[in-house]
Amino acid sequence: MTEPVSPLSPAGDRHFDGLADKFAASLYGGARGELRLALLDRLLPEMLDLQGQPLLDVGGGLGQLAGWFAGRGHAVTLAEPSAEMLARAREPLQEQNVRFLQAPLQDLPEQAPGPWPLIACHAVLEWLADPRVALALLAGLLAPGGQLSLMVFNRDALRLSNVVKGNLEKALADRLEGKGLRKRLTPISPLTHGQVEAWSAENGLVIREVAGIRVFSDYLRRPPESQAERERLLALEHRYCRVDPHWRLGRYLLYTLERPTHPPQEASE
Ligand SMILES: C[S@@+](CC[C@H](N)C(=O)[O-])C[C@H]1O[C@@H](n2cnc3c(N)ncnc32)[C@H](O)[C@@H]1O
């Protein structure tokens, strides 16, 4: 009998080979994906200091974010380990100023060392076996004064949505993460805000901004039925996405992390 081939990489990460169709349909094909992009369109200019800097997009997936930045004059390097995702990203971006690099985050210190003034890493850390080491690697690629736009899947929101759906046993056992096997889109390493705070501090990164992405939408009993309702929902999401306590239960947490120009001074004797 042949052993089933694991979809996990040697590092234990879930590269998206074999998942591109499902990801495109379920994350970007519907209202949730539209909302995420509409929110990012508003939030990225509010949360980042954008001046056309070169951008490294880590785990760039289907390339929506790369396209957004390239369209605003940034020279983009899209790094992505999955050949299938890269192939899909290339087509819509062929006219844009985007360089493609087939590489996992772990290879970037050699393949795209920078240092970079601007890095994006959206919805990637939760697919890695060791997101803490990954954040350290990202910090090492940032130039002094550089900004990291980091988006992570929020473990606390995953708990709430499981309870809302009636998955009480799973929530009580705190068995929230997926295993990365088959074609499931439940991340293997959902993160908490506390982890992002602690790991940022470990790597000398300062949290400049934080927002919740989809703070209401995933808990609705009735999805919006008209364009007017979808617009009201977007207005509500935008109004409360950076307001305590709402941001804390966003499906994703979006951060601007900065590497300070000068490392903090040691307290003098
Ligand atoms: C949920 S998708 C997010 C794609 C894109 N950043 C976005 O926001 O739409 C996660 C991506 O991370 C990639 N990925 C998985 N392991 C990775 C690794 N070790 N280094 C870089 N990217 C990785 C996957 O192949 C997939 O394209």
Automatic annotation (TrEMBL):
Methyltransferase type domain segment(s): 56-149
Gene3D superfamilies per record: Vaccinia Virus protein VP39
HAMAP family, A to Z: tRNA_methyltr_CmoM (MF_02057)
EC number: 2.1.1.-
Native source species: Halomonas aquatica
Protein name (record): tRNA 5-carboxymethoxyuridine methyltransferase
Gene: cmoM
Job description of the protein: Catalyzes the methylation of 5-carboxymethoxyuridine (cmo5U) to form 5-methoxycarbonylmethoxyuridine (mcmo5U) at position 34 in tRNAs.
Gene Ontology biological process terms, A to Z: methylation
